[in-house]
Amino acid sequence: MKEAHHPRKILIMFTTNKSTKASLYLLLLLLSYILGFYTGKHLNKQNPTQLPEIHVELPPYPDLLRFRTLCSDPVPSKLVRKTILDRIFNGNSPFQSFPPAHASPLLRRKRIKGWGSTGPVFETLIRKVQPKTIIEIGSFLGASAIHMAELTRKLNLRTQILCIDDFRGWPGFRDRFRDISSVNGDVLLMYQFMQNVGYVNRTEEILPVPFSTNSALSWLCELGVYGYLIEVDAGHDFHSAWADINMAYAILRPGGVMFGHDYFTGADDRGVRRAVNLFARVKGLRVELDGQHWVIGSS
Ligand SMILES: C[S@@+](CC[C@H](N)C(=O)[O-])C[C@H]1O[C@@H](n2cnc3c(N)ncnc32)[C@H](O)[C@@H]1O
Asked: Is the beta carbon of 139 within 6 A of some atom in ligand 1?
């Protein structure tokens, strides 16, 4: 009677047989060649100017995809600044009598820092769209907003830039920005943003909208304040980016463009990129890439 082979015995027999060893070696060589060939092809597709292949699963609960898509009738562009001043700042510019005496000694004369805030995508899109209103979602110290204001001025455009930010930064940001003061635990990020905007003399073009992105975006939708150009650069986790992108799209003017940073990051397909791709898939829109920036036009 033949002895039944125990799987481990089969393995040992298999690996000790010399000719089998040689075949295995050849097989391994062949496999690594094939793997290298396809990896190389795939990496070429990752070239930031081209869109990598997207595989997006739709969530099984359609409610998760539902956002408000209809907003109020548009406020005319020339009334946008006044509308924001009236509704948030009691009709006065927040830059009037700025900085207040208690904060003045705590502010740096100028402290501007951003990420990809002066990339070529800004000029490309501003030239293309000629925006009367830009809505920036996530402004921090104002680097990208100031860059956009410089560009619109250079191009002789009369553009209002609304900067939505709660000016809290993110947990842990103080480790890197110790020089931004706080008073009784309240970090002076909005004041430093305003100081920067004042320093470069762009207080007419730029206004802060100091609320959470969700509440500010639904409020602008309610008011009928739309953006010709909307930059999405606040929370970079999937859920934040997903909500911001959807809510921003509702206040994007027809023919407008929405864009944002950090399409390729360490978070890879778990954060911004996943949200952008899912959004494009749901709406049937095309994502274009410009370095680290993603760009989506209105349908
Ligand atoms: C990456 S920074 C923006 C950088 C800026 N666009 C630049 O390049 O100069 C992100 C900003 O988003 C703001 N932010 C994050 N989540 C937010 C939320 N849910 N509501 C309001 N602001 C938020 C933070 O306070 C921070 O200032």
From this structure: yes
